[in-house]
Design goal:
Blueprint: H1 2-43, H2 63-83, H3 86-96, H4 101-115, E1 126-131, E2 138-146, H5 149-152, E3 159-165, E4 173-179, E5 184-185, H6 190-198
Antiparallel strand pairs: 1-2, 1-5, 2-3, 3-4
């Protein structure tokens, strides 16, 4: 009996140890891969005379990340305070004359503007519940924006554009036009909704952010 209890305890300790260390280890590993890639990529473009690694016998971690951040900040500062809207407008005019590329640039510009919150709309700002892929089955979706006039005129009911992310990889999914009346707004923020999707429902909303129903 004692051996069985010991075996059970050791098993519980092992699973608990995995549960505690695995997510942290995987997260740090992914971050390290990204940092190493950026450091290597940016390091290729640094002149040897200005590259600190030329003077050290060991690689300097995060050097590429720091250089990239500084460069992006300088470009943003230069654009806002010196060049204003002239440089972006000139770039848009040049790209507008290139077939295919102009459409790709416009789409990417809109996506980044929306994701970074610099535009009028914010991506994935409204988690909703919809019946998908068939009636009786429900899934979380995100309203991503209004529907273009050409699509809306084909339907009587007002439509909305929604993105249905796949589990556990929310970077892929399905883009749908759905009647607004068929969406149920959820009392969830975007972060909590993505947590549920990533964890396949194992991790629920942070309860402290939600009010408990009042007892009558």
């Amino acid at each position: 009996m004692a051996k069985k209890d010991l075996k059970t305890c050791l098993k519980n300790y092992l699973f608990t140890g995995i549960l505690v260390t695995a997510p942290l280890t995987i997260t740090l590993y992914i971050i390290w891969i990204l940092v190493d890639y950026i450091d290597t990529f940016v390091g290729r473009f640094l002149p040897q005379a200005y590259n600190p690694q030329t003077y050290f016998s060991f690689p300097i971690p995060f050097l590429g990340v720091i250089v990239l951040l500084v460069l992006l900040i300088l470009i943003g500062m230069l654009t806002i305070h010196v060049l204003g809207a002239r440089l972006p407008s000139l770039g848009k005019k040049l790209i507008a004359h290139i077939p295919v590329v102009s459409g790709l640039y416009a789409a990417l510009h809109k996506i980044f503007e929306t994701l970074l919150g610099t535009g009028k709309e914010s991506a994935y700002r409204t988690p909703v519940l919809i019946e998908y892929p068939r009636k009786g089955l429900w899934t979380i979706a995100f309203i991503t924006g209004p529907v273009c006039h050409e699509v809306q005129t084909t339907q009587k009911d007002p439509l909305v554009s929604v993105f249905v992310p796949t589990t556990p990889n929310p970077t892929s999914g399905f883009f749908l036009f759905i009647p607004k009346k068929d969406t149920i707004p959820l009392d969830l923020n975007v972060e909590d909704a993505f947590k549920m999707i990533l964890s396949t429902g194992i991790v629920g909303p942070n309860e402290k952010h939600h009010k408990a129903p009042s007892k009558k």
